[in-house]
Amino acid sequence: MTPKTTPAASTTPVVLTPTDLREAHEALADTTGPIGIRGAATATDWADPAHATPTVLDTTRLTGVLTYNPSDMTVSVRAGTPLRELAAELGEHGQRVAFDTARVRRGATVGGLVATADSGPLAWSYGSLRDLVIGATVVLADGTVARTGGHVIKNVAGYDLAKLLHGSYGVFGLLVEVVLRLHPLPSASRTVSVDAPLAEAAKLATSVLSGQSEPVAVEWFDDRLVLRLEGTPDGTDARARRLATDLGGSVLDADTADEVWARHADLVAAATLRIGVRPSRLPAVLASVRLTGATVGLGSGVATVSVPDTDVDALHDAVTARGGTSVLRRAVPNARPWGQVPSAVRLLRALKNELDPTGRLCPGRLGSWLDGREATQ
Domain 8-185 - what CATH class? Predict the structure, then answer.
């Protein structure tokens, strides 16, 4: 493996571009000092900013499917693979990774999506990548190769590394290979739209989720409740028409539905924060700040929210007061990157010390927690 770039000055990092597990191992085993990890850079400004490092490990050449047998409903893939490219290949066999976060269309990689704990509307039905990743190969800070789950028989140090790396922003190890659980592509998809302010939409969503229509996504944005249903053509059509009648809404045609969900993705991409709180508490949380845009998962309790920069800390506080979590999705000067500090923060620090005792991986990421800065927040 050779560097992608050669530094022209001391402030320009050396960029290493491994293409497989062996080269990823060498990149960490044969180097010293702080090292950053970079993928498609679709979440660069999320959470705590990364510190500049003399070496950067670029994962964008760690691509490609390793093992795929459609009858097993699993796929093993290198972590630098863009999910949209994987989706195209799986779609030829009528299968998918049931994961639809907005960043996929911008080239987000499998590893990057795991590392940032991102999710989309389908998380209500299928969960996040934490639920869909069933195995992983990780290279630790000293070059040790660790495997967990999937097709292997031994975990390292007793940890479920696949789940540990979910939301870790790269501070525990480099995710190199991932085994994903797959689902069939639905034969049909229909979208029901109901004009309603958030408080009313929340009540409607509660009734829907306790009924028989079984939507796979329940979102509110642009003053409308939007529900996606999937299944067989006849069954999905019947459920969608019945749901639209019950709620006083309409079943969108395919083109309009695509436009509505594209609008949802645009709002997510522009969001200031991502918050998670019990769904019944979301309306009160969002009523406490000046919203300039929002997508609200009324089933999942996850929302992406745009607010004026001066209101970021107030929203953090509102979410924390109701037992939720919040994190920045774009750089906001002088704003806190996180809301509530996790109760397991001491465990996170202990794990960091065990897996990366010199603190060389992705310095700055999760710094508010790992460096103890939350004491001043």
Answer: alpha beta
